[in-house]
């Protein structure tokens, strides 16, 4: 059902697929490893990724030395839980609300600490993937699969001091795996409920001065009921949703000398999603389906240079395209209406970091970014030039500080200066860690909001729009109770101003900067290692939001969220996991928003998984999603999946 990929793109993909095969041949040169985004080794030589954050500072940093609120999920955790898509992974993260219109390919939005879904900066291997082809420049998480991920990080709170535009509520960073060691091939296949059939494969390794990783993934879900029966008009049959997501990626590196390294990334995904079409006014489901098709191409080249010990430089260039097609309703008796949008982004960047003294590091950088938006009747571009500096200091062996400042000069609206300060201190004797942060964020208006007109609806863009802005802070603690228990809590608050909203005037409507809102609450957790083979964690998030113009609660922000995870390894070959996510009641509109405010009762989901390593090369796995067959809607008007059972096999060859 997807559109054909342009011939030039197929040639690029074919080349990226062929290169890893050539690199698998043995090389005579000794392998040189110089990781950039990987964590530094611990004293015993192992790498403790779970204790390291990259997103909080821009370089690998122990979480205990930064005051930022950050959650890290590694590939080992995702594989143990058998999580296939980014939305599934993000549901368990504290402070996050994931809203998905039905199946695996349905439009997926993420809210961080009560902020809007377009207030989240999303990165894949350092590439900004906030989508300029959409009206609000938000990223649709539905097409992102997890098979090739090394880790994902969620950084909560305003982060524009380091990341610039769009980081009003936080940053979500996905990092894919890099090749290492001898050649290794891994493949998996699974099948299960709702016509699900997923496959994936990966080839990776290192040979001489070169490391490589190539992966392919395919997710298919053919028969998921998404439309609730109570919203179907009389005589209209239920049309199930169909999802088909394909992705391919290549990650290459070459350590040319002890001080110089080249990196290259190419990633392409093609997502087709068919769901029941709405028609008429007010909108009601029809007997037909819509097609939503997305193609996304990401490329990045990077050169790393370390001319002196303690002085590291990265020169990079990104290119990203976001190509969307909407067609429907797919009525066999009439040609469907269709629309296309195209977003493009290029970026050139430099970042340096220098060790000023033991425990003190200075980061600095600059970037130039240009984006373009094309749709019917519009072809517009905008650009931004930004620079930043960040200081990381170990004031003592217990007191740490991270502070950054950034200035952006946007071609459309001018300049914006943002900052973030995040201290952390560990008390002697009790080992209580006190942490906190304060920072600002901004989001410039999108090209659609500035220039896109809909004359048939008397709606017009507004070139005079200003950026949305935020100011936020948090403060908390973490307290070990013996060697096996850790507890903690964090209070947060974020204020928003100049929010862009629609104004309805006597003869037309447009977007204006009139919105103000506040979000505040607390995140708390208990993490327990009961035995060497059994561990678990429980998180609770309380979020209060208020529109300060209407004095009403913001939509789709549940006040209460509980997530719990447990991992048990009763024998070396067997790993069992359990996950619970409970979402409290929240305010929402119905499917066509003819009822703009109603109460959604919330829901609770329980998932189980089992992985059995039959041998070094063969693993059997099975999982149950929504164990108690909870019937829920999130958002209102779109059914989530009921009880589902899956099983499969993973094969590894060295």
TrEMBL record:
Keyword field contains Nucleus: no
User: What PROSITE patterns does its record include?
Assistant: TONB_DEPENDENT_REC_3
Q: Tell me where in or outside the cell this protein is found.
A: Cell outer membrane
Cross-referenced SUPFAM superfamilies: Porins
Q: How does it sit in the membrane?
A: Multi-pass membrane protein
Which regions span the lipid bilayer? none
Any one Pfam family match given in the protein's UniProt record, by short name: Plug
Domain TonB-dependent receptor-like beta-barrel: start-end pairs: 242-627
Recorded hits in Gene3D superfamilies, A to Z, give:
TonB-dependent receptor, beta-barrel domain, TonB-dependent receptor, plug domain
Secretion signal: which residues? Answer: 1-29
Which part of the chain is the TonB-dependent receptor plug domain?
Answer: 64-171
Q: Which residues form a coiled coil?
A: none
The alphabetical list of record keywords is: Cell outer membrane, Ion transport, Membrane, Receptor, Signal, TonB box, Transmembrane, Transmembrane beta strand, Transport
Family, similarity comment: Belongs to the TonB-dependent receptor family.
Q: Give the protein name, as stated in the record.
A: TonB-dependent receptor
**Record organism:** Methylobacterium indicum
């Amino acid at each position: 059902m997807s559109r054909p990929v342009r011939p030039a793109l197929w040639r690029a993909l074919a080349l990226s697929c062929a290169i890893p095969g050539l690199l698998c041949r043995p090389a005579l040169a000794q392998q040189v490893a110089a990781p950039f985004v990987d964590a530094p080794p611990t004293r015993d030589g192992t790498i403790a990724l779970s204790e390291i954050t990259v997103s909080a500072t821009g370089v690998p940093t122990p979480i205990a030395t930064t005051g930022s609120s950050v959650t890290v999920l590694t590939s080992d955790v995702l594989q143990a839980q058998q999580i296939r898509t980014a939305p599934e992974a993000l549901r368990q993260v504290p402070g996050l609300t994931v809203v998905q219109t039905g199946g695996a390919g349905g439009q997926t939005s993420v809210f961080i600490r009560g902020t809007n879904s377009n207030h989240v900066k999303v990165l894949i291997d350092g590439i900004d993937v906030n989508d300029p082809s959409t009206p609000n420049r938000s990223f649709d998480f539905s097409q992102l699969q997890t098979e090739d991920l090394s880790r994902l990080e969620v950084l909560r709170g305003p982060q524009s001091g380091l990341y610039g535009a769009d980081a009003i509520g936080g940053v979500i960073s996905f990092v894919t795996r890099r090749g290492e060691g001898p050649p290794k091939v891994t493949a998996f296949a699974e099948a299960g409920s709702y016509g699900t059939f997923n496959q994936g494969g990966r080839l990776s390794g290192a040979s001489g001065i070169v490391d490589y990783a190539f992966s392919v993934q395919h997710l298919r879900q053919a028969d998921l009921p998404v439309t609730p029966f109570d919203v179907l008009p009389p005589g209209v049959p239920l049309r199930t949703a169909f999802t088909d997501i394909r992705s391919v990626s290549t990650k290459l590196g070459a350590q040319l000398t002890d001080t110089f390294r080249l990196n290259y990334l190419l990633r392409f995904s093609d997502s087709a999603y068919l769901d029941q079409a709405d028609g008429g006014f007010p909108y009601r489901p029809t007997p037909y389906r819509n097609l939503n098709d997305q193609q996304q191409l990401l490329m990045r080249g990077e050169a790393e240079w370390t001319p002196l010990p303690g002085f590291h430089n990265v020169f990079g260039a990104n290119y990203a395209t976001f190509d969307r097609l909407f067609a429907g309703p797919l009525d066999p008796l009439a040609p469907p209406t269709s629309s296309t949008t195209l977003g493009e982004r290029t970026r050139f960047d430099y970042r340096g970091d220098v060790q000023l003294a033991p425990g003190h590091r200075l980061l600095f950088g600059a970037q130039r970014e240009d984006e373009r938006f094309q749709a019917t009747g519009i072809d517009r571009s905008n650009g931004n030039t930004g620079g930043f500096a960040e200081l990381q200091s170990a004031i003592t062996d217990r007191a740490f500080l991270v502070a950054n400042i950034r200035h952006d000069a946007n071609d459309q609206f001018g300049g914006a200066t943002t900052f973030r300060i995040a201290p952390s201190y560990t008390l002697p004797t009790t080992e209580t860690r006190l942490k906190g942060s304060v920072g600002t964020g901004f989001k410039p208006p999108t090209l659609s909001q500035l220039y896109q007109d809909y004359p048939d609806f008397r709606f017009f863009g507004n070139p005079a729009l200003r950026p949305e802005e935020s100011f936020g802070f948090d403060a908390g603690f973490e307290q070990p109770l013996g060697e096996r228990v850790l507890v903690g809590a964090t209070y947060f608050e974020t204020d928003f101003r100049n929010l862009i909203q629609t104004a309805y005037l006597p003869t037309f409507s447009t977007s204006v900067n009139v919105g103000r809102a506040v979000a505040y609450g607390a995140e708390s957790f208990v993490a327990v290692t009961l035995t060497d083979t059994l561990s678990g964690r429980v998180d609770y998030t309380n979020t209060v939001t208020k529109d300060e113009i209407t004095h009403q609660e913001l939509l789709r922000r549940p006040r209460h969220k509980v997530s719990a995870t447990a991992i048990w390894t009763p024998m070396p070959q067997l790993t069992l996991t359990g996950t619970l996510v409970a979402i409290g009641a929240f305010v929402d509109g119905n499917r066509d928003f003819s009822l703009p405010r109603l109460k959604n009762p919330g829901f609770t989901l329980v998932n189980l998984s089992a992985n059995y390593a039959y041998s070094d090369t063969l693993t059997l796995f099975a999982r149950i999603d929504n164990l108690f067959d909870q019937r829920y809607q999130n958002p209102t008007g779109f059914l989530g999946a009921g009880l589902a059972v899956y099983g499969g096999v993973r094969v590894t060859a060295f």
